[in-house]
Every structure is written in structure tokens, then in C-alpha cells.
Amino acid sequence: MIKNDPIGTAIKDYLQGKKKGSITVSCNLTEDDIIPVDYLFRQQEEMPELETIALEACHGHVLDVGAGAGCHSLLLQERGLQVTAIDISEGAVEAMRGRGIENVLLGDVKELNDQKYDTLLMLMNGIGIVGDLFGLYKFLVHAKTILNPGGQILLESSDILYMYEQEDGSVLLDLNAGYYGEVEYKMKYKTHESDTFKWLFIDAGLLEQYAEEHGFTMEVLYEGENGNFLAKLVLQW
């Protein structure tokens, strides 16, 4: 799926003993962020509270969206849940299969059409894959076709309004630039660099509006100190 695969290459390097690598994440809003590759392999005791709550809330057949190295899928599988991991990274998919995850798909969740799930798990700001608000609209329409009745989406996102705050406490937004949570990213690992891609951060209030318009009820299960939150969307119709 991805010819230039920074995430997958980093994961495979780690499994081959190259433990000190890091992934550089560039964003059009702020300075580069550095993700140590070993963070993708965190154990249960290393996971933040938000992720622990999300894993406890999973039920039925779980689709782990953007599963990466598979740390969440492995835990769910060990707990006896039926779990399928999906990622667009060929390297990540190969690594997850090698780590013993029984059901792994190479592909884009937005293109699935031949299976039903009870839980869509979207951690590490996982809803960001929709790209923008129109993408969120399309994703919620699609999600209803792959969820069983009463199925749920467990997703992490963040309200990044604070990134637009000025020194005097005011907020400066370009009202002609679209929603402030629509950003652009690029990832790099060694010589592997992704194309620029869109990523969505959405505030809980706006997310609830979109959820209700598409037949979901929404509950916030966790709120962090930096605007991040865990939401549960349950399909009603």
C-alpha cells in the first residue's frame, strides 16, 4: 500500500534489534515532534490511562484501526477478544503477523465492506485518519455499514484550539482557512519520508454534533489535561 513506509520500516528495524530509532513527525502548525519507535511497542503497564479505559470498553469483534505494531491488538487477543488489526503500512502488517496477531488486514478501514464489527478502536488520535470534517462525514456514513447494530466507535482526539492562543490569552483564527483542527502532517524515518497528508483533530462538542446527525450517541469516557479525550460513539440506527 505504501512504497515509502517510515512507520513500517521503523517497526521492522526495531524487531530486528535496532531499538534506538525515532520517527520525526512534521506538522504545519508547530515544531517537529519525535516519537521513539519503542513507544509503538509499549506494554500494558506503560499505556496512558486513556488507552487503558478504551481497552476495557472494547467488546465483541474489535477492529483495531491503524494498529501499527499491534500493541493494543495483542492485549485484546490475550484477553480472549476477537480482534482484527488493520493498517495501510505493509511493514506494520508484516510485523504484526510475525508478532502473533491472528487476524491482520492490509488496507484502509474506509474501504472495508465485507465484514461487521462490534467495536472500532481508533487510538493515538486515530480519528485523524479521516483528514478533515468532510472526511469525518464520509467516515461516519461508512462506519454504519461495518458496525453491527448497537456497535461502537472508541476514538481518541484532541481540541487543539490552545495552539492558536496568543500571549495575551486571545485566540487568533483565520476564519477563511476552514476548521482549525484540520492540519497537515509528514513523517520521516531515516531515508523514508511520507507524502504530506491531512489529519483531523476535532473538539468534543463538534464531534458530538456530527455523531448525532449520523445516528450515534456520544459519551466522553476520559478527558486529559492537554485537550485530548476518549469518546464512545454508539450506533442507534
TrEMBL record:
Family annotation (Pfam families): Methyltransf_25 (PF13649)
User: What molecular function does GO assign, one term?
Assistant: methyltransferase activity
Keyword check for Methyltransferase, yes or no. yes
Task: Look up the domain of life of the source.
Answer: Bacteria
User: What biological process terms from GO does the record include?
Assistant: methylation
Q: Which Gene3D superfamilies match?
A: Vaccinia Virus protein VP39 (3.40.50.150)
Entry-linked InterPro entries: Methyltransf_25 (IPR041698), SAM-dependent_MTases_sf (IPR029063)
Q: Where is the Methyltransferase domain?
A: 62-151
Is the Transferase keyword given for this protein? Answer: yes
Keywords assigned by UniProt? Answer: Methyltransferase, Transferase
| Record's protein name | Class I SAM-dependent methyltransferase
Q: Provide the species name.
A: Pontibacter fetidus
